[in-house]
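Before relying on records like the one below, remember that each one covers exactly one chain. Contacts with other chains, cofactors or solvent are not represented anywhere in the record.
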Amino acid sequence: MQKVSEQEVYSAIKAGFSDFRTLAKISLAKDWSGMTNKKRCEMARKLVYMGQVAKMPEAYFSREETEEEWLGRANNWAKEYNVQARYAFYIVQDPKGIVFNNLTGLLNSDLLSAFYNFCSDVQNWEYGRTRNDGMADFMYVQESNKIFKKVKGLKKKVELAKTNPLLRPLKSLCMEFQR
């Protein structure tokens, strides 16, 4: 696949996070009446946070916005445990870990690993495209392909989730044959 514009990749990323938010809302609706007011408020705050991530993913994943804080966490951890900072960089929380942990409890078990992997792809794309070596173009194309593929799958999940429950098995069967 050829290299697509940053605008197209950001549009896909925004659509992906928006689709995860939609799926989370649909999942929460089933349990909403059984939740306490405190739990409802917590879930609502997490939905707002996910909406913010969907509107401006670059603020949560781009090297420009996150690298300094990430390195700061690594340096502080390295000083505290008396290790080299380059090793601490892999131990402290990265941008995807922060986003993922802020949304713990919002997503059901079916979506949890897909969301983490999507966040990982977004972070890899953001950091890969800004590398200072010859790998930047390769990382850009490789990770953007993963993002587009996952967004396409998410669109199908949202479409299926929004389908009338009586028609859902039939639609699911039709989608299987479309592959």
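The longest helix spans residues 6-31.
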